[in-house]
Design goal:
Helices cover 40% and strands 17% of the residues. With 168 residues, it is of the alpha/beta class. Strands 3-2-1-4-5 form a five-stranded parallel β-sheet, sandwiched between helices. Helix 1 crosses helix 3 (59-78). The longest helix is centred in the middle third of the chain and has 20 residues, at 59-78. The protein is globular. The model is unreliable at 116-121 (pLDDT under 50).
Length: 168
């Protein structure tokens, strides 16, 4: 794993619906701003905590598998879209720290609101929360369903009474 330099958009990709939405958003932003996207898949090789790692028995095999999944996610996101410069990278380590390290000099870091983490926070996923707290660059947290996918915002009369969510 390397840290990126310059005017790039780093996006975390883990195969979840949230990361797919984040990748689509990052590609759209890159197209509009003329930036390059660096799609990052963090991975670990921990035999005690990860049955997949134990079954594959090799850190090289697990990284290869994650790289293939990352490349497929990028290909899926680019299908039918206008071309945007994209680089796919794997980063060894826990997702939050790996993304923050990779994006330390980036224009922005984009993550999905919820991924495959074991502990989901109330409003954002644990990786998103880590990135928001620790990142040196701006962080964009994209919901699973982006604004375009949800449709137009309803008028005040249609929306009904506002009910605030839980306060943290």
């Amino acid at each position: 794993m390397t840290t990126v330099e310059g005017n790039v958009i780093v996006v975390g990709v883990d195969g979840s619906a949230g990361s797919a939405a984040a990748l689509r958003w990052a590609l759209s932003e890159a197209k509009a701003s003329g930036r390059e996207v660096v799609a990052v898949r963090a991975w670990t090789f921990d035999l005690a905590a990860d049955l997949e790692s134990a079954a594959l028995r090799s850190s090289r095999e697990i990284e290869k598998r994650y790289r293939q999944q990352l490349e497929q996610a990028v290909a899926d996101a680019l299908a039918g879209a206008e071309p945007v410069p994209v680089r796919a990278e794997t980063a060894e380590g826990a997702p939050g720290p790996a993304l923050v390290r990779t994006a330390q000099n980036a224009a922005m870091l984009v993550v999905g609101s919820h991924g495959h983490g074991r502990l989901l926070r109330l409003l954002v996923g644990s990786v998103s929360a880590y990135c928001l707290k620790e990142s040196r660059c701006p962080v964009v947290v994209v919901p699973v369903r982006t604004a375009e996918e949800r449709g137009p915002v309803p008028d005040a009369e249609e929306a009904g009474t506002y009910q605030p969510g839980p306060l943290l």
